[in-house]
Amino acid sequence: MPKNPRLLDDVSFHPCVRFKRWESERILSFIPPDGNFRLLSYHVSAQNLVAIPVYVKHNISFRDSSSLGRFEITVGPKQTMGKTVEGVLVTSQMPKGVLNMTLTPSQGTHTFDPVTKLLMWDVGKINPQKLPSLKGTMGLQAGASKPDENPTINLQFKIQQLAISGLKVNRLDMYGEKYKPFKGIKYMTKAGKFQVRT
Fold first, then answer.
1. CATH number of the CATH domain containing 135
2. What is the pTM assigned to this prediction?
3. Would I find Membrane among this entry's keywords (predicted)?
4. In terms of C-beta density within 10 A (0-12 exposed, 13-18 middle, 19 or more buried), how is residue 180 classed?
């Protein structure tokens, strides 16, 4: 039985879930199929504001008629209840006028493809005591005008044992088994499409 079922919006259930029981009592009743399976997927509605668990500080600047631009981003944890933010991957589609990038990461590895203009920074885990940053310069096309808008930063991450939606399993009951099963719940927050406009 989930705690805070009112948070759920646009729920998609595995076919093993008894939907009538969910509709009437907000209880998930099901006979699990063999093997791994996803019991349900859901989105948190706009009325239920969720604290974003990470932040991005950025300073990306282009100057008219200059062959150099500045690039600086820092990623940090926020509202993680002491849990580690891991699997952090930062990507950004740079403007056409960016020819190359000379960057130094404080942690992780980065690549910039001068053909596709895609910047990728594989950060890994975030250490709150030493926030990861990526700083440097961008080589710009000579005489190119300043881009109409700065690039968008896309972020992927995951946090084990944290459900930022606030949805929790209140109780887990099992019936019809002679052996004593191990009952445990594993939570994970994973970024879907997380974008920062610069």
1. 2.60.40.1170
2. 0.78
3. yes
4. exposed
